[in-house]
Amino acid sequence: MLLPWKTASQTMVARLSGYNESPYSAFFSFNPTLNRIVHQHMTCADFACLPESKLNYFIGSFVRNPYDRVYSGFRQLQEDIRTQPSYSYAAEWIRTLVMKQLDENHRQLQAADFDFDKWLASVTEDQIYEIGYNTNFPLHPGHYWTHINQTQFANFIGRVEHFEKDFSDFCSKVGIVTEARNANVVDLEGAASENPFSYRYINRMDKKSIEKINSLFFRDFELFGYDRLPC
Q1: What's the sign of the alpha-carbon dihedral 114, 43, 133, 127?
Q2: What is the pTM of this model?
Q3: How far apart (Å, rounded) are the C-alpha atoms in residues 144 and 129?
Q4: Which of 99, 104, 121, 123 has the greatest CB tally within 10 Å of its CB?
Q5: What is the share, in percent, of the chain residues with pLDDT greater than 90?
Q6: Where is pLDDT greater, at 200 or 122?
Q7: Closest CA to 156 of 56, 220, 61
Q8: Could you give the CA distance from residue 127 to residue 140 in angstroms, rounded to a whole number?
Q9: Strand pairing partners for 147?
């Protein structure tokens, strides 16, 4: 199971812990195969370079509508700034790099007065599309965890909006049974809208933010069938 940011990944980690065969750290660590720092939110392209990708795993991934993902990522950035400085790191140079990334994220939020719309207006395309520059920026397109070079890589794609049903379908396909444990469920807050996908945070962003999300994540809307809202 690949774990895109802000797609109930911690709940899946908790539920699938008994089947976890990963030899890699979930937190920031240097991967000698990829020659860069990675963590549990490894993309399809990264996974395909690892020896484990040749073991014929049935690969699953969950997606989430871009509006809620972006707003949830905005909150996650602030949470990471508060908590990650106190964590333990595999090496001091890794900690130093992560602190630089956190500082960059904090300065961008601070310049926007921690206002979502102002912050999103300052987010640039390279922050969204370039995954290697800042390993602490949680808002890369969802299809990075489902597709490689325009071709679907994941065998199963579930939706956060239908999480319990889709997670149950995944477990049935791979023949496992899990306990119904949850983690980091704060993202379930918010009022579901009238949209068929129940966009939860759409009332917390202005029309310019909606327009920018429509543009930055156009490929996710196309691939996963989420409705673009008019702006």
Answers
A1: negative
A2: 0.89
A3: 9
A4: 123
A5: 81
A6: 122
A7: 61
A8: 8
A9: 152
- Of 145, 17, 16, 148, nearest to 69 (Cα)? 145
Nearest to 226 by CA among 86, 218, 73: 218
* Cα gap 118→104, rounded to integer Å: 16
Overall residue count recorded for the chain in this entry? 231
Which residues have C-beta within 8 Å of that of residue 222, sequence separation ≥ 6? none
Domain boundaries, the chain: 9-224
Distance (Å, whole) CA 141 – CA 128: 7
The b/e string for 200-225 (b: 16+ C-beta within 10 A; e otherwise) is: bbbeebeeebbebbbebbeebbebbe
Report pLDDT for 190: 52
Distances (CA, A) of 141 to 58, 144, 147, 178, 215: 22, 6, 10, 28, 11
Q: How far apart are CA 106 and CA 227, in angstroms?
A: 31
Three-state secondary structure of 46-73: HHCCCHHHHCCCCCEEEECCHHHHHHHH
